Amino acid sequence: MAAVLGMYLQNAGHEVTVESAGMMEFTKNGGSASPNGVVSAKRLGLDLSGHQKRWVGSLDLSRYELIVCVDETVAGELFGKYKVPTEKIFNIQLSNPWPSSDQRDHDEVAENVMAKMYRVVTRRFSEK
Description:
Strand order of the largest sheet: 1-2
Helix content: 25-40%
Oligomer: single chain
Largest sheet: 2 strands, parallel
CATH topology: Rossmann fold
Radius of gyration: 14 Å
Structural class: mainly alpha
Distance between the termini: 21 Å
């Protein structure tokens, strides 16, 4: 998501930093992007070879202007546990392909990410 959002914002002339972090336990251990995710991103012209997983709980979330999340469970946790104000949360409602080993599932989600990140840019950054 961060790579797509960063690409769209850069193409629109916005100078912002886009970072990625996850809520799942396994992100605490770091690591690179999933092999299926790397393939899907490459098909879209994006390079995830340098991506490193980070856990959202290790970050100072108050320093972020916007936090894009994948579903209402994550949005609720950001608001409740991490005290992120609702106006900083943008929920894109995205299915999770990571349990699947079928590349087609990852490709489908990658295409949805493209559409939903475009929506983030047009709704949150077009007036800036």
